[in-house]
Each structure stands twice: as C-alpha cells, then as structure tokens.
Design goal:
single chain, 751 residues, Gyrase A, domain 2, Topoisomerase, domain 3, 4 domains, four-stranded mixed β-sheet, four-stranded antiparallel β-sheet, 18 helices, elongated
C-alpha cells in the first residue's frame, strides 16, 4: 500500500483587501483612514448631540425644553386655561420630531407636580409623579392637564420685539426661537443635567432671589464677593447643605465640585419614631429604604424595629420605628454615614457659548449672561425705537394733511380713479406713499378739531420718546439700569425663601465607626469536614472541650483568634467567601454550629474545603497543590479588596483537581506524596510568588500516568528517618519510592 503523505496541506492565504478590489455582488472596497472616518462620521454626530440635545445654553434651556415651552406660549397657555397634556405634546411635535414619549417626559420634568425645579415652568394638574421617587410613575398625557406657570412671563417677555433670533424648525415649515429672552439668569436657577458625547453637564439650582441679587451686585461691581449674596446651592427637595467653604469657592471659581446634602428629620417622642420629611435632591425614597433594609438584614441597624414610606398628598414622610432606649440623634448620625440620607451632588457647569461647550464658574456665567442680556435689551430698544419712528413718520404725514383738510378733500373728490388717490395726495402735500395710504384710510368722522389736536400732541410726545430711546440705546449705564430693574422686579414678584437650609460641620454630630465596633475578645474557632463552623469563648471551652459532630463528620481546622477577626473560606468551586467572625454568634462545644453553605449563601452543591485567617495586613502566601503535580504560590494580598466584597470568584486555578491547600508564613521544607507511592521533599523558596489568583503554578512533582499528587505535610512532621533520600535541590523531580520504614504514621490530606 502506498504510504500516506505526512505533509500538511497548506491553507491558501486569504488575500488582503486593498483599494479598488472588486467583491462579487457587493461593489468595490475603498480604503479610508480612520482619522478621516472619525472626522466625517463621528465628529458631526458628537457635535450634534452636544449642540442640539444635551448641553444647555446661556438661557438655561436645552433645545427640547425650549421647543416645548415655546409651543405652549404660542398656544396661548401663558394666560389661558389648562389644556390636555396630549394636546401640548401633539403640537410640540411640529418643532420636536423625537416622539411623543420624549416630549412628555420633558414636560413632566419641567412641571410643578414633579417637583424637580425650584421655579417650575409648567403649571400641572394631575399625577406627574415625584422627583424623589424612583418607582412612582406619572399618568399618561391623556389624563393630565397643563399650562405655563406665571414665571414664564419673565421667560417670554418681549419675545416678539426682536430680542432673540428665530431659526427654521427641522423641516423648514416654522420658525422657533434660538434662545428665550429670560429676564433673570435661569441658567443658575433651574437645575439641569445632560450627557453628551465625551462630556456632560450638571447644574444645581440656586435660589431665584439670591441669583437676582448677585447679578445686580455683579453689574454694579464685577469684582464683588459672590458668596455674600449667593449663599449656596438650593434644592427643591430641601434638606440641609453641609457648608464647606473651600468646596463652595471651588464651584464658584471653576464650575466643578460637589456639595453634601443631608435629610431633615424630627423625633416624635410619644410614638418613639423618627420622621424624615426632606431628603437630598440626588437620591430617592426607594434607594433610602433599600439601603436601610440592607443594614437591618446585616445586623448593622439593630436600633430600628421597622421603617416604612408614609408619603401622601401632604408631602414626603419616611417613618422609622425605634427600639426602646435608642438615642435618635446617634442613630441618625449613623444613617447619615451609611445610607443615602446624606448624599453628594456633583456640579459640572458646562454650558454652550456661541455653539461651543465651556465649563464656567459663576462669575464667568454672569459675565456671559449679562453680555447676552444687554444685547437682548438693546435689540428690544432698537425694535421699539423703529416702531416709534414709523408711527411718527405716519403722524407727520397726517399733520400736513390735517392742517389743510379742505385741500385733501378736494384732491380726493376731483380724482376720477381710485388708484390715483394716493399719487395725487403724495403730489399735493409732498408726502410719501406710506403716509398717503395711512391718511387715505382715516374715517370721515375723525376729521374734527379734537382729533387733529390729539394727533398733534401725540406727535410731540413721540418725538420726546424717540429722543429718550436713542439716548437709552447709546448709554450703557442706562441699559444696565434697565436690566437691574427687571432683576429686582423678578426677585420681588417670584422670589421665595430658601428650601435647603445651611449647616456647618461643627454644628452636626459626626458618626465614627469605632462606636459601632463590637467588643473584641479571644475565641477558638472550629471547622468540620462537612462545613459546620463554631466560635467558642475560652470560658465555654473550659467547661466543655469535647466537640460535637454529625455522624461521619470530623474536625478539619481549628484556630485561636479574636472575635472580630476576618476569615476566608475556600470552596470546591474555585471560590472564596470573606466574612467577619463578629457575624457569628458565640456557640458551645455541644452544638453542631453554623452550616456555612447556608450562612454564607453559597451556590448549590458548593462545599468548604479550607479556612484562612488573613489578618489585618494579609501577610504570607497560600500554596495550592494540584493532583497533576503543580503548585501555585499565591500571595495573600491577592485576596485583599478595597470594597467590602464578600465573594471572590476564580480563587484558584481549575485546570487540575485540587489536592491540598497550605498557608505559608515563612519558607520551609515540605514533603509531597503521590499515590504510587513516591515522596519528594523540597524547599518552598523554589516557588516564585504570584499575585494572580488563578495562576496554574509550576511543576513540582513529575508523575507517571495513572498517578496523582495526594498528600502534603511539613518534612519534620513525617515519619521519614533519612530525609536526604527524598530531598531535591531543583524542581520538578520525580521523587523517590517510599520505603516501608518511612511510610508509617502517614498523615491524611488536609482536604
């Protein structure tokens, strides 16, 4: 028979696609540099999200807010009655093509009912949910009604007087304002957040009156101390702001930073309960309840007997029932530390200025807003000035005719064709077409002395108004005075007291974990082979030292330690569970103890095989011996975590069955046995420590087929009389066959 070729078939090399390569039924391939792809595809998308969606502009609104409010304004909802929210949503879709759900969500967040803004812009009726509730959903738009709030009069003031630019909507069928002419710095008053591509924006709210007063102070003196009038952020959910001078100044100067806000509570003595009625703006009722329930379950809030949500139409209220003898202030200090009852609000004052995102401090925002508002006021003055001049021009033409009304009547009567009336009046009195058309439309009954006198006086008054407006337009100080008057008027009309009170760190009680630590005392711990665990005090152990086990069970490990020590339990599923001994109750030798798979909530079928007390510094190493003859030396610090994780997966390698685990605090000689039986004695210094928990290790014992590593013990604990026979200086090694005199009193595996 011919021999089969031993040469491997060479696989054809797939040709690399290049520029101009034709693919059947798919066209040609064009190579394009990644930089050009990013420039032409990614960057336009990123900028559209930044500019047209996520980042607010100097008026304090994002495009979705502006489109909704302007639609409501054009519907007459500033002064009219409420209408169905579904009607508003439908009308807004003419400006906003993102769908009815997105529009309604925007309306909800701007509404008074939702409570997310200090100055809500939508006067709502019906169920609009609550900002402090994660699970409370708002009603469908067909069930709710809305109109614009009164403060929107300051938002849309003089919008029809050319104060802002108007642009085409998405399909060029309508015009919409590019900005809204707010008479106060709404960018600082209304809380706003957005996530763009590669950046984000997070504005906290400030009190309206404080913002207006600060803006006035800035207009008078750009170098004024902002903290004198702008005390701190203010939130619609109230609470207490912990005033940190450095943090506040960082926010004011850079536009970045965070403030801490805590809940408000009162103690009801006759019912022995706490009532929480204001919470931080950045959290929810459900998040607080979940965290407190977690603490109660973990035994860290034993002072609490019950907690429930009693929020109703009167407002938010969380009730905490206390056990007898509990100090409510100390308990709240602990809850502030361990729950979202005290939370941080991160500030990122990222705002669009002339289409470019910029992170600005408070002073810089006021500078940009005052410049923009000054331009808006000047545009309004110029618009009104133009209207006045147009009217004056008409009245001048009227005055000429009224001075010789008989001549005007004669011209009109003698004109044969109607189309010639206007030209003849223009020629007869030396006026232009606009003036002539205005005069021609005057009613016959208005041709009297009273009418002529009033029009003449009006002409004189208009001249004075025009002169005043021209002076105003050319006087920066007078324009500034107009802005100040509008700010003072808005503050007086819509200003409200602060909702978030200010407290200082020295005024509040601080919670220290040391107060919560349990008393530490010596204990002895015992782990059985079937996973039963006991923690016994020395006094109890002296009274009865005989350990009770289930039938067929026996002791696996025992240690003497302290009651607050940390323990790690390795399982046969390559996992390790970390816990504090303080979570176990003291037991007696006469009981079985806690069943660890149940206590530690292990996976189904998972069993404990080894226990370690890592100590506070996680010193030393763990040696993992595998049946294939490999040994992995893993540093104890590999199991140390920054967070309080109770379960670590991948505690050791799963490439070979585990034979034994030993703790190694200092290098020593170990004797390794296989089931052949062979023995090998080596020094642990030959093993390089690893920091990766799942490291497979290095070969120590070379094994013949069908044999495996079985037992490990200290060399001095073996019955070997001539250790030199089994000792090796390098690994891996096969070891030597165990002599009969060296095999007596062999120890069983630690597993």
């Amino acid at each position: 028979m011919p021999r089969k070729s031993t040469k491997k078939a060479i696989k054809p090399v797939r040709p690399q696609l290049g520029d101009g390569v034709e693919i059947l039924n798919a066209g040609s391939v064009l190579e394009d540099p990644i930089t050009r792809t990013l420039e032409t595809n990614y960057m336009p998308y990123a900028m559209s999200v930044i500019v047209s969606r996520a980042i607010p502009e100097i008026d304090g609104f994002k495009p979705s807010h502006r489109k909704l409010l302007y639609t409501m304004y054009k519907m007459g909802l500033l002064t009219g009655a409420r209408t169905k929210s579904a009607n508003i949503v439908g009308q807004t879709m003419r400006l906003n093509p993102h769908g009815d759900a997105a529009i309604y969500d925007t309306m909800v967040r701007l509404s008074k009912g939702y409570g997310a803004l200090l100055t809500p812009f939508v006067d709502s009726k019906g169920n609009f949910g609550k900002s402090y509730s994660r699970d409370m959903s708002w009603a469908a738009p067909r069930y709710t009604e809305a109109k614009l709030s009164a403060i929107c009069g300051e938002i849309f003031k003089d919008i029809d007087s050319d104060t802002v630019d108007f642009v085409d909507n998405y399909d060029n069928t309508m015009k919409e304002p590019a900005l809204l002419p707010t008479t106060f710095p709404n960018i600082l008053v209304s809380a706003n957040s957005g996530i763009a591509v590669g950046m984000a924006s997070q504005f906290c709210g400030f009190n309206l009156k404080e913002v207006c007063d600060t803006t006035v102070a800035y207009l008078k003196n750009p170098d004024c101390d902002l903290t004198e009038t702008l005390l701190a952020p203010d939130f619609p959910t109230g609470g207490e702001l912990i005033f940190d001078t450095d943090a506040i100044r960082d926010i004011y100067n850079t536009g970045r930073g965070s403030v801490r806000v805590r809940a408000k509570y009162r103690y009801v003595k006759d019912q022995n309960l706490l009532e929480i009625y204001e919470i931080p703006y950045s959290t929810t009722v459900e998040a607080i309840l979940d965290k407190v329930a977690e603490l109660i379950k973990a035994g860290k809030a034993k002072e609490i007997s019950d907690m429930r949500d009693e929020t109703d139409l009167s407002g938010l209220k969380l009730a905490i029932d206390l056990k007898r003898g509990v100090d409510p202030d100390k308990l709240m200090a602990k809850l502030y530390k361990l729950t979202p009852l005290e939370d941080a609000f991160a500030c990122n004052f990222n705002v669009l200025i002339a289409g470019s995102p910029k992170v600005l401090g408070i002073r810089q925002i006021l500078e940009e807003w005052t410049a923009w508002r000054t331009d808006s006021v000047k545009r309004r003055i110029f618009f009104v000035l133009g209207k006045k001049k147009e009217k004056l021009h008409l009245l001048k033409g009227l005055k000429r005719i009224l001075l010789d009304i008989d001549k005007a009547i004669r011209i009109i009567r003698e004109t044969e064709e109607e189309a010639e009336v206007i030209p003849n009046l223009m020629i007869g009195f030396g006026i232009d077409q606009v003036q002539a058309e205005y005069v021609a439309e005057i009613k016959l009954r208005n041709i009297n002395k009273e009418y002529i006198l009033k029009r003449t006086q009006e002409t004189d008054a208009l001249r004075d108004e025009i002169d005043d407006l021209e002076d105003l337009l050319n006087s920066p100080q007078r324009v500034k005075k107009v802005i100040v008057e509008e700010l003072n008027a808005a503050a007086k009309k819509y200003g409200e007291p602060r909702r978030t009170s200010i407290v200082y760190p020295h005024e509040i009680a601080q919670y220290t974990p040391e107060e919560e630590q349990k008393e530490e005392y010596p204990v002895s711990i015992f782990l059985s082979r079937e996973g039963y665990f006991k923690k016994i005090t020395p006094a109890s152990l002296r009274m009865n030292s005989e350990q009770k086990f289930k039938e067929g069970d026996a002791l696996r490990q025992s240690f003497e330690t302290t009651s607050n020590a940390e323990a790690m339990f390795f399982t046969d599923q390559c996992q390790v569970y970390k816990t504090q001994l303080g979570e176990f109750d003291d037991a007696k030798a006469s009981v079985l103890g806690d069943y660890l798979p149940t206590k530690l909530k292990m996976d189904a079928g998972e069993n404990v095989i080894f226990m370690v007390l890592p100590g506070a510094d996680y010193a030393g190493s763990l040696l993992f011996f595998y049946e294939n003859g490999k040994v992995a030396r893993i540093e104890m610090k590999a199991y140390q975590t920054a967070s309080n994780r109770r379960k670590l997966t991948g505690a050791y390698s799963d490439k070979s069955p585990l034979a034994c685990i030993r703790r190694l605090d200092e290098d020593c000689e170990l004797a390794v046995y296989s089931n052949e039986p062979r023995c090998l004695i080596f020094h642990t210094a030959l093993l390089a420590p690893k920091t990766t928990r799942s490291a497979q290790g290095v070969a120590v014992m070379t094994l013949k087929p069908k044999y495996h590593l079985e037992t490990v013990m200290l060399s001095e604990e073996t019955a070997i009389t001539n250790r030199t026979r089994y000792r090796v200086r390098a690994i891996p090694a096969a070891g030597a066959l165990v002599k009969e005199e060296d095999s007596e009193d062999q120890q069983i595996s630690l597993l």
